[in-house]
Write a structure and sequence with these properties.
This protein is an all-alpha fold and 481 residues long. It has a single domain, classed as Amino acid/polyamine transporter I (Up-down Bundle), CATH 1.20.1740. It has helices at residues 2-10, 34-38, 73-84, 92-126, 138-180, 188-202, 212-239, 253-267, 273-279, 286-312, 321-325, 334-366, 386-406, 410-427, 429-442, 445-451, 453-479; strands spanning 47-49, 62-64. The protein has a two-stranded antiparallel ribbon. The longest helix is centred in the N-terminal third of the chain and has 43 residues, at 138-180. The radius of gyration is 22 Å and the shape is globular. The chain crosses the membrane at residues 77-95, 101-120, 141-174, 180-202, 214-234, 254-277, 289-312, 335-356, 390-410, 416-435, 456-475.
Length: 481
């Protein structure tokens, strides 16, 4: 088995038909960010490189083939932070409840270190094309490394994750609308259908430009939600009459695996890094920018998770903090109304923004059109017929609705997605792509190994830990689904 793996890394046939690959689909993760909405006209910026020496990854110099972006390093730090922070943070207080104060903080720290390290590796992979060409998307990187199989596998992981995230958002819309309007007497599943019907015609729009202004409300709602969790947690922890219990350390390997996946979801930026790189004035500064960003994110997440856990203690194991602040039954107070309205304002535009790149990718693959950049429709060489666009996007909305209706809860769906696809996408694939790119540039895996034993050992250790968490956490997520 090891020999087959090394042979696949050393196979250069993946590059034989690279010239025919023109797909450039920018897929945003789980965040409604400034970069994912405003960068639809910057797709022509790419980073290329030519290795100057086969002895070390540090010798892979990067040079821009086209004009670079305009973002300073400080702005890039903010962009990366906003890209990472998303709906996954609502599960962070539960991480502390499952693992204890120290255990939860340890998971947040370890995943931050792994995520930061993988961002550095994926940057080298993006900027080290053997032919000195630009790599504009995560799927294209998979193609350069492993041919069509790599592109299909990467796109599959990305789009399954994004489709699941859309279903999560639809389910959140349904559950919170039921809380907001209980007098209507409709179940959360019925509200999911209503929200799908509302979002359906909006997905027919040609590009994100038409909904970009709505996304600003989503970002504002996200900030309000963060502040709400922190302030409510502190207030409830001080004033509550309940006897909340806390633990410093809870050793449960299965819960550790699930919590590891949830943290991966919260830190994830991998599949939008190409866009962030294109926007940077100094792309080579990305590793340092990522380190500063992840340090800030770790502090933010630690504060949110700690405050939420302080407010509700180990009760969060069974009831997520959103349902503690805004309970499904018993009516809402001021905290509850603010929480529910913020979630609805966040999830509504977020659903549309996440669905767009998935639809664009399918349209590009399924429709017989001339090559064009699907995230830059104004400059497209081909135009998607309206009827076909509506058909593709209707099917996607229907799929997300079916998933939202079938799954038992938001928490279960997030656990399943984060443990499997998100951990693979952020904790394993970057390492694989980095190694493969070095092999393509330096000739063989043994050459890379001899020159970078310590570096690769650390990388393999992180990938192995991520793989172990997929196995352990995946078992728990499936059993408790």
């Amino acid at each position: 088995m090891a020999g087959k793996c090394l042979g696949y890394f050393n196979n250069k046939n993946a590059l034989s038909d690279l010239e025919t690959f023109t797909q450039e689909v920018t897929v945003s993760e789980t965040s409604v960010t400034t970069s994912s909405v405003t960068n639809t006209t910057s797709v022509n910026f790419g980073i290329t490189s030519k290795p100057t020496s086969p002895s070390s990854a540090t010798d892979l110099k990067t040079t821009p083939s086209l004009p670079q972006g305009k973002c300073s390093n400080i702005r890039s730090v903010f962009n990366l932070i906003l890209t990472a922070i998303g709906i996954g943070v609502i599960m962070l207080p539960t991480t502390f409840a499952n693992c204890g104060w120290f255990g939860g903080l340890l998971i947040l720290f370890v995943v931050a270190v792994i995520s930061n390290h993988m961002v550095g590796k994926i940057y080298v992979a993006y900027s080290s094309h053997p032919k000195g060409e630009a790599i504009n998307t995560y799927e294209q990187l998979g193609y350069v490394c492993f041919g069509s199989a790599g592109a299909i596998a990467t796109a599959g992981i990305v789009h399954i994750t994004m489709t699941g995230c859309c279903s999560t958002l639809l389910l959140l819309l349904g559950e919170n609308t039921q809380k907001l309007i209980p007098m209507a007497g409709l179940s959360s599943k019925v509200w999911c259908c209503i929200w799908a019907a509302i979002c359906w015609p909006l997905t027919w729009l040609k590009s994100l430009n038409e909904v970009s202004y709505v996304s600003a409300f989503g970002m504002a709602a996200l900030i309000v939600l963060f502040i709400l969790i922190v302030v409510n947690g502190i207030t409830n922890g001080i004033t509550t009459d309940e006897d909340n219990s806390y633990d410093w350390w809870i050793w449960n390997p299965l819960e550790f695996g699930v919590s590891f996946g949830n943290a991966m979801l919260s830190y994830h930026v991998t599949n939008v890094l190409a866009t962030l790189i294109r926007d940077m004035k100094t792309p080579s500064a990305l590793p340092k920018v990522a380190t500063v960003s992840y340090l800030c994110i770790f502090v933010i997440y630690g504060g949110i998770a700690g405050c939420g856990y302080f407010g509700y203690g180990n009760t969060l194991v069974d009831v997520p903090i959103i349902d503690r602040i805004a309970p499904p039954t018993g009516g809402l107070d001021g905290w509850g109304y603010t929480c529910v309205i913020s979630l609805i304002c966040l999830c509504f535009p977020h659903y549309i923004v996440l669905l767009f790149p998935i639809a664009a990718s399918l349209e590009y693959q399924l429709l017989p059109l001339p090559p064009f950049k699907v995230d830059d429709p104004e400059n497209a060489k081909g135009t998607i017929p309206i009827a076909k666009r509506i058909a593709v996007r209707t099917v996607l909305v229907a799929i997300t609705l079916v998933i939202a209706i079938v799954v038992p809860s938001v928490q279960k769906l997030i656990d399943l997605l984060s443990v499997f696809t998100m951990t693979a996408m952020a904790g394993i694939l970057p390492g694989i792509f980095y190694i493969r790119m070095r092999v393509l540039n330096e000739g063989s895996f043994m050459t890379v190994w001899k020159s970078s034993r310590i570096e690769l050992s650390i990388l393999f250790l992180m990938m192995a830990l991520s793989g172990l968490m997929i196995g352990v956490g995946g078992y728990e997520a499936i059993v408790t689904f």
